[in-house]
Amino acid sequence: MRRFVMSDSHGGYRAMMQCLERCGFDNDADQLYFLGDVVDGWPETKESIDVLLGINHLVYLLGNHDQWALEYYGDKMGKGEDPPGLWLWQGGAATIESYGAGKPMPKDHLALLQNAKPYHVTEDNILLVHAGFDTEKAIEETDPDYLIWDRTFVKRCYSRFVAGHPLTVAPYKEVYIGHTPTISLDRRNKKPLHIGNVTLTDTGAAFNGCLSILDMDSKEVWQSDIVMQLYPSEEGRNGMSWNQLNQK
Hints:
single chain; alpha/beta; 5-stranded mixed β-sheet; 16% strand
């Protein structure tokens, strides 16, 4: 069984399909660890979750955007005419449009997010988590909001990387993180970033980067096209579409 890692597709169904096809994903034999945030941004959240529900060996982790969508579709967030503006601006409007304004999220889609894990540790001691974790605490004692929102861990790792200092995060063999796009740390880097035994997997699919899928064991990486180009008339979370950008 090959083990693959993907994260932060943000409604980019076309990019997901490219990644799965390009890596030769075998749905009968291969494992997919998805590190959260399948929702919000590009227009095909519904189609994206349909794909994940068809993966036989899937471990899905909760992302911060998944939590927002859960709050909205679980009636814990203001709905109707005025759902919270921050969520709408950060891609929630595209998720609502994907399912249809005023319509519920299908029960099996909602269940995927409701049953998402806050983190996962493999049998060979590899940690997977959406945003980061507090190295001063046992992972099981960390506040779930920290695991899906906080960027402190990534900032510390990246500071050591920039300074040229070695990094090994105990007690794990490896750590895989989503949430923080590599292009937000270095706009030129649209590939997963390895910092010691930590790998940042979000390569900016929500913005002007690509979606990536990694083989956890061979370390091989496959990428989609630039996601903006796959949805050239959609603004996503960029505030400007690919077509608008190239008319200037």
